[in-house]
Amino acid sequence: MNHPPKITFAQMRASGAREILIYCRDHRCGHHVESDADGWPDDVRLSDIEPRFTCQRCGQRGAEIRPKFSEAPMGTG
Ligand SMILES: [Zn+2]
What we know:
Blueprint: H1 9-14, E1 19-24, E2 32-36, E3 63-68
Antiparallel strand pairs: 1-2, 1-3
The structure holds zinc ion.
């Protein structure tokens, strides 16, 4: 497993990302959505808001949140 570092929205924005990707915690589901990150305060960590999300497809509580960079080194296909 390759966990990303726990960064804040301020750090994320400083690195160039403007949106977040919210992944369902159930990897068999694989559902994910994109969300605008502008509404979140600078001092909030991405991991802090993960428990707030519920998958709209399978109902799994919690999420995995990652920054969406405009130039990702690896695509998900
Ligand atoms: Zn799901």
